[in-house]
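Dear all,

This email documents one entry for the complex benchmark we are building for the journal club exercise. For each entry we list the sequence lines for every component of the assembly. Then comes the predicted three-dimensional structure of the complex as a token string, followed by one or two observations. Please use this as the template for your own entries, and keep the labels exactly as they appear.
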Amino acid sequence: MNNPTNSNNGAETAFFDVFFTNATEAIFITDSEGQLITANPSFINLTGIELSEARGKAPLILRSEFHDADFYLALWRTLKRRGSWKGEIINKRGDGEICREWLSVSSHKNAAGEVTNYVGTFADSAGRMSQSFSKHYYDSMTKLPNRLLLQDRLEFMINHARRNNQLMALLLLDIDRFKMINDTFGYEAGDALLRITADRLVLCTRDVDVVFRSGDDEFAVILEEIARPEDAAKVAQRILDAGSEPLRIGGHDIYATTCIGISIFPTDGDGKVQILQNAEAAMRRAKEVGLNSFEHYKPTMNARAMERLSLENDLRNAVANSQLCAFYQPQIDIKSGRITGAEALLRWKHPNLGMVQPGQFIPIAEDTGLILSIGEWVLRTACVEARKSYGNEKPFVISVNLSASQFRQQNLFSIVESALKDADLPPDLLELEITETMSMKNPEDTMAVLRKLKDLGIRIAIDDFGTGYSSLSYLKRFPIDTLKIDRSFIIDIPENSRDAEIVKAIITMAHSLDLSVIAEGVEMEPQAQYLLENGCEKIQGYLFSPPVPLLEFEKLWAKHK
Ligand code: C2E
Ligand code: CA
Ligand code: CA
């Protein structure tokens, strides 16, 4: 066969010759069997193999140990089916050195439609490298390229798409609850899950798409040359569908679903950094929406992240700028209708946003660690204000919420002690609320902390009771005073008979453990009535009063004491 450089058009031939000879990319031409016919100087340069040596052999003489026989088979299959193959290939040079190359091969057909030649080009994509260096780019467990290579490849693909006016998509996938699966079933199960996920991803994508393991339980897929964004969604859906079947791992049926974030070049960003960041934002959003879902990137996702960031910055100065205050919600003895205590609830008077509710800023405070200083501020403020409110008259108990990180704080005891001392508040007038979930996380540790707090003479309440999974034996042993029935059980009583039964059971159990019970979120008279009939001593909720500023609370207190 005829060398395709022998074109019939003279000008074209001249151009091709110049191009062929001077290209920095290696170019090689094979016959229909894949035997090398000719190659350009760059080929010789990059491979270190002389043309005389290579001629008549398949370019497979370049193969390294990085790809197995299946890899080359798949390459040929794709080439025969689609007429082209593109991808990263790791070749071994004539001198035994290993090179990473970005290879693109396509077939050329004659008028009868038969393949006459294959033309391949490749560029040395990351220079030569040693075997150990190349291991930096591949994950040994899944055999997939890793995050480093993702960064590199993403840049390459974006440039390619930009030059050719094409769309490309980045999918980022995160395995749902991977840590829990790892903790519950052991790391062998976790490893098996990663390998199976890697295989699934490869099966769900086209041969030209590249799958990466980009993090511990995170994968990425680059979809090259998609026609429209919906194509990326289709791939995402296929991956999710594959994940809805349980996996049999180590004798367990494990549901390994994923969340996927999608960003598209050029619509969602014009460079590697933005495309990656936006796929991450989309993935986080998918996680919020629920297990086994995917999301396209939307600019509002960054707006939300920005909003949060600016809230975080503002929150750093909130204490110093005296923007925080405590509201107080009375706790009522149902029988007598008198105020017996108050829960301190944080409020943030933001200079531009107005009153910010704790649901919006406490999670931020917890993530950033600001909760420690904010928590200490609330504790000290509540003690001082409560002491001042009752003055020389009959006192009430002040309840303060403790967050999980405060509860684990080493100097919690000295903070509480000094808050009491500075406010001149008797310890038995302070009740600290910890949530049920928090208390049951490490019950032995909880026990130790509670004992030390109890030694100070303060009271302890278990908040949001009924939402966590309490161990009765620990509840029995914890030195606590009060159970606070979660609002979610109160909303539908007495009509909802299941909730009504649960509430009744909690009250009975609390009394058998010698604990007092308070119900929170009581809004309606029939709820209070039901609680009274079933022996609950105290209530807190809008029925009596919402949380109010100190001055208003003092008025209520003056009226009711
Ligand atoms: P929580 O400790 O369960 O507080 C009770 C929440 O229920 C308060 O919401 C209160 O305003 C609301 N509430 C009271 N009665 C009713 C009612 O009848 N109906 C309804 N629908 N809601 C009622 P708030 O003040 O927005 O606080 C929300 C959460 O923020 C608190 O839940 C607590 O977890 C946290 N929080 C508030 N202040 C602090 C604090 O100083 N430190 C810490 N660590 N967390 C705090
Ligand atoms: Ca509370
Ligand atoms: Ca609560």
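Observations: Residues 10-129 form a domain with the Beta-Lactamase fold (CATH 3.30.450.20). Residues 263 and 279 are 5 Å apart (CA to CA).
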